[in-house]
Amino acid sequence: MQKKFIAIAMSTLLMAGALAGCGGTKQATNEIKIGGDFELTGGVANYGKQAVNGIQLAIKQANASGGVLGKQITLVLADNKSEAAEATNAITKLITQDKVVAVLGPATSSNTLAAVQVSQDNKVPIITPTGTNEKITVDNGKTRPYAFRSCFIDPLQGTIMANFASNTLKAKTAAIFIDSSSDYSKGLSQSFENVFTQNGGQVIGKEAFLQKDQDFKSTLTKIKAMNPDVVFLPAYYEEVGKILKQAREMGMNMPFLGTDGWDDSKVVEIAGAAPLNNTYFSSHYSSQDTDPNVVKFIEAYKKEYNQEPSVFSALGYDAGLLLIDAIKRANSTEPEKIRQALEQTQNLQLTTGIMSVDTNHNPIKSAVVIEMKDGKQMFKEKITPKL
Asked: Measured between alpha carbons, how far is 114 from 111 in angstroms, rounded to an integer?
C-alpha cells in the first residue's frame, strides 16, 4: 500500500513538473528566434558582417515598433567561417539546437548551396540575402519549397553585363576570367557567354584562378595576348582587387566587367583607385539613388554604424524586412506558415526596390550598373526586368 502511495505521489510530481515545464516554455516564447548562418570570419567575412549589420538594423527597428505578433525578435548567429562544410554545421545547430523558426544567410552562393538542403530536410525556411546561384532555389528543375532569396539571380546579372558590353560599350570580343572554385563565378560566366554570343559577340578565351591565389600575372599575360575588347571577371572583392591591380600594372587598359561580388569598399583598398577606372559591375542598388526608401535606409544605417552601407548591408536589411513581413502576414511563427507567406510575397517595398517572389522563389526587381571613377562608385544605368 505504501509503495502504491509513493508511486502515485511520484506520478503526481512528474505531471506537475511537466505542466510547470510547459508553462515555462510559454513564458520563454515571448521572443521569435531567427537564425543567422553567416561568414563572420574567413575569406569573405566582410560580406557576412555587412549583411548581418543590415539584418540587425531591420530587427532593431521592428522591435522598437512593438515587435512582431507582440513578441521581440532575437537573431541567433552562427559563424560558418566562409567554408561550405561549416555552413552546413552552422544551420544544423541553428535548427536542431537553437530551434529557430527561419534562417537568414549565408552570404555566398557556395555556402548557401551547402546549407540549403538542411533547411529542406527540416522544413525550415532559409533566405539568402546575397546568394545568387540559380541552384539555391531550384534543384533539377524543381523549386526547393523552403529556399528563398532577397537578391536577383546570376543569369540576370550575366545578362545585364553581356548586354551592357554589347550595347553600351559596343564590344565585339570578350575574355572571361573566372574563379573555378566558386559556383557563383561559374554560373555568371555561363550566363554572360550565352547572352554575349547571342548578341553577335565572340568569347575569344577563358582563363581561371582559385580563391586565395595571390599572383595572377601568368594568366593575365595570356588574356593580354588575346587583346579582347572587354574582360568579364565575375568574382569576389579580394581577388578582384588583386587582379585589377596586377592587370593595370601590365598595361591591360581595356574595360573589366564584374558583378555584385565587386561591391565592397575593400576592393578600392586592395586595387587602388586608379586601377579601377574603366571598370563596371552590376549590383542591386546604388547609394546615389534618390528614392526615399534608399535615402531613409542610408540615414538609419549611418546613424547605427557610423559608416556607409554596402550592397550586402542593403540586401541583409531587405532579407530581414522580407522575413518580418512574412511572419506578420502568416500571423504565426510556424515555419510552414512562414514559408507559405514568403511564397505569396507581392509588391513588397524594400530598400533595393519593390519586390515580388516568382514561382522559383526568386525576387523580381530592378538592377543597376555601376561605374568606378577614381575609387568612387558612380551610377551608370538602371535595368528593370520584364515581367
From this structure: 5
Would you say residue 211 has pLDDT above 90?
A: no
The β-bridge partners of 232 are 176, 257
* Helix segments in 250-291, DSSP class H: 266-271
* Residue-wise pLDDT tens digits, 349-386: 999 888 999 999 999 888 889 999 999 999 898 777 65
| Cell numbers representing residue 319 in the block | 532579407
Please give the Cα distance from 134 to 315 (Å, whole number).
Answer: 17
The arithmetic mean of pLDDT across residues 155-163, rounded, is 90
Supply the DSSP symbol for 342.
H
Task: List, in sequence order, every residue forming a beta bridge with 149; answer none if it has no partner.
Answer: 128
| Rounded Cα distance, 262 and 237, in Å | 5
What residues does 279 pair with on adjacent strands?
256, 372
Contact 127, 104 (CB under 8 A): yes
Helices 292-305 and 45-64: crossing angle in degrees, nearest 10, is 100
* Cβ contact 190:232 at 8 Å: no
Sorted by where each begins, the domain ranges of the chain are 29-152+290-366, 155-283
Contact 100, 119 (CB under 8 A): no
CA 184 vs. chain centroid, Å, equals 11
Cell of 366: 530592378
Q: Which CATH superfamily is domain 29-152+290-366 in?
A: Response regulator (3.40.50.2300)
> Nearest Cα to 37, choosing from 83, 84, 94?
94
Angstrom distance (rounded) from CA 175 to CA 221: 12
Cα 185 to Cα 110: distance, rounded to the nearest angstrom: 10
CB 222 within 8 A of CB 148: no
Under CATH, which architecture does the 155-283 domain have?
Answer: 3-Layer(aba) Sandwich (3.40)
User: Which cell is 334 given?
Assistant: 510556424
Grid cell for residue 152? 536577383
Beta bridge partners of 353: 350
Is there a common fold for 29-152+290-366 and 155-283?
A: yes
The predicted model scores a pTM of 0.76
What pairing do the DSSP bridges indicate for beta strands 363-364 and 353-357?
antiparallel
